[in-house]
Design brief:
Layout lengths: L2 H10 L4 H34 L8 H12 L10 H8 L11 H9 L3 H15 L10 E2 L4 E2 L6 E2 L6 E2 L2 H9 L3 H7 L8 H4 L3 E4 L11 E4 L1 H8 L14 E4 L12 H23 L10 E6 L6 H11 L4 E4 L1 H4 L6 H13 L5 E4 L3 H4 L8 H19 L3 E6 L7 H4 L4 E4 L5 H11 L5 E2 L5 H7 L4 H17 L4 E2 L1 H14 L5
Parallel strand pairs: 8-11, 8-12, 9-10, 10-11, 13-14
Antiparallel strand pairs: 1-2, 3-4, 5-6, 7-9
Helix pairs in contact: 2-3, 2-4, 2-6, 6-7, 7-8, 14-16, 18-19, 18-20, 20-21
């Protein structure tokens, strides 16, 4: 079972208010049981350390009282390592549980140790106070316990776990088990290969186990509300969601363009079946890449938005002004923020004016050219690995590097509309609340003035506003011609 398909099915099951409420309640109950089990394991693990002699009389009881407050007043028992292992090996039975979290655990056949790590990374978001126990002071050294790991956030006041924290909870100080458990944090483990967890690496030569261990927002949402939150446009996510109330009837395209777009629709509907049910995932690259090219206003952006609307997929336009940087390596970092957030959500990524990012490589004449070409090589690989639909849009096809075009499944031209198409646009754009002056012939205007769909919309808006200013519902010929003249001037043309 493909986890991407399975996860999409889980989210789709939350449609409707009642279903969404049921999912939230099921998730909450399941997580409550998991957290209680986690607390018992940590309670016992920590108690082993508290049993050690401390220099100041009464400190042991003070720490035990601290644990009791953290873990809901349960008595902190004295246990040996075998008992700790026994407890950690008997987590709650989720075989009959219908929550998303339970389905996820069963899908991956997760071990108790993997489940402990999952709960550990969830706790800062659902019950951060339970990790306060790791703030205990080592009274021999007058500071925290090294083996607890953990870091302090900039705004979060609680304990943030590291790989060291996870190792302590799962295997304690058993060196053999510790070395084996460290394989869990390799990039090939499903935690990281499927972007469930990620590691906030430490700078310098600090041990890798001191790096922060974080659950991605996608899975925090999935395990709690059962649906994804919409990311806010910012420097950390330089992309804006595209939405429209328009339909395919509002988009007028020539026949060749429409036929070519149909291939993308077919892939969006059957692409996963081709890869996973037909066993083609080892032969075909994931995802689908398309290049839209043509003059401004010919429907490239609207087409991408309508594809998302048709298949209930979010469409995000990458803001190149916030992505492209003159500093070496910064463009890649900025773009990686988008790809990392998008790669498991089946988003459609739309790169408008894509030649700014995916333009032709230059001959190397200095170090700047060398790094610019390295940047294009990174973008090429990152785009090729993106598992969903990515659309590059440009005014000129030949501005895109050939290395990209060779890896693109569809190259679709969006030409300026012909007279018959322009007439459809003129007729469909005016409000039904207005009438046209008797002297206006849309047929003649369509044949005489070459305008793209976006320009026609601008003309209609201008003429309609002028009518409103006159407190009229009649579109005048003069206002219509003024609007056309404005659009021609934008393009450096004259009537």
């Amino acid at each position: 079972m493909d986890i991407k398909t399975d996860r999409n099915r889980m989210v789709e099951n939350t449609n409707g208010q009642t279903a969404a409420t049921d999912i939230v309640l099921a998730n909450a109950q399941c997580l409550r049981d998991e957290v209680e089990w986690f607390a018992k394991v940590v309670n016992i693990r920590l108690s082993n350390y508290i049993q050690k002699p401390v220099p100041a009389e009464g400190e042991r009881e003070k720490e035990r009282g601290f644990l009791e407050r953290i873990f809901s007043g349960n008595q902190v028992p004295s246990q040996n390592k075998a008992e700790v292992s026994k407890v950690s090996a008997t987590p709650p039975d989720l075989s009959e549980n219908k929550s998303i979290y339970a389905e996820f655990v069963q899908h991956y056949k997760m071990t108790p140790e993997e489940r402990l790590i999952m709960v550990l990374t969830l706790l800062p978001h659902i019950q951060p106070q339970l990790l306060d126990a790791f703030f205990m002071t080592n009274h021999n050294l007058k500071r925290g316990f090294t083996e607890f790991g953990g870091i302090k956030g900039n705004q979060h006041g609680g304990f943030l776990p590291t790989i060291e924290t996870a190792l302590f909870i799962t295997v304690g100080n058993d060196l053999d088990k510790r070395i084996r458990m460290m394989q869990t944090f390799e990039p090939t483990h499903f935690f990281f290969a499927h972007n469930i967890l990620y590691v906030n690496s430490q700078s310098g030569n600090e041990p890798s186990n001191s790096s922060g261990l974080v659950m991605t927002e996608e899975f925090i949402d999935l395990f709690t509300t059962g649906k994804h939150r919409t990311p806010q446009f910012s420097m950390e996510f330089p992309a804006k969601r595209l939405m429209t109330k328009m339909t395919w009837n509002d988009l007028v395209l020539d026949e060749i363009t429409s036929v070519q777009l149909n291939e993308i629709r077919i892939w969006l509907q059957h692409g996963r079946t081709l890869l996973y049910d037909w066993g083609m995932e080892n032969k075909l690259k994931p995802g689908y890449k398309a290049l839209f090219y043509g003059p401004p206003g010919t429907g490239k952006t609207l087409t991408a938005t309508l594809l998302g609307k048709t298949f209930n997929l979010d469409v995000y336009r990458i803001d190149l002004s916030m992505v492209i940087s003159k500093y070496i390596g910064e463009t890649e970092k900025n773009l990686e923020k988008v790809f990392k957030r998008a790669e498991n959500k089946n988003w459609i990524l739309f790169f408008d004016e894509a030649d700014a990012l995916f333009g032709k490589r230059t001959n190397i004449s200095d170090s700047h050219d060398k790094y610019a070409n390295q940047e294009i090589a990174y973008l090429l690989q990152r785009l090729e690995d993106y598992p969903s639909l990515a659309i590059l849009a440009t005014n000129m096809r030949h501005n895109i590097d050939e290395a990209f075009t060779r890896r693109i499944q569809s190259i679709i031209h969006f030409p300026k509309p012909e007279p018959g198409e322009r007439l459809k646009l003129w007729k469909s754009t005016f409000s039904p609340s207005v009438t046209l002056d008797e002297s206006i012939s849309l047929d003649q205007i369509s044949r005489q003035y070459e305008l793209a769909g976006g320009s026609i919309l601008n003309v209609v808006q201008f003429a309609s506003l002028m009518a409103l200013q006159r407190e009229s519902t009649v579109i005048s010929s003069d206002d219509l011609m003024k609007g056309i003249r404005k659009e021609y001037l934008k393009e450096g043309r004259t009537l």
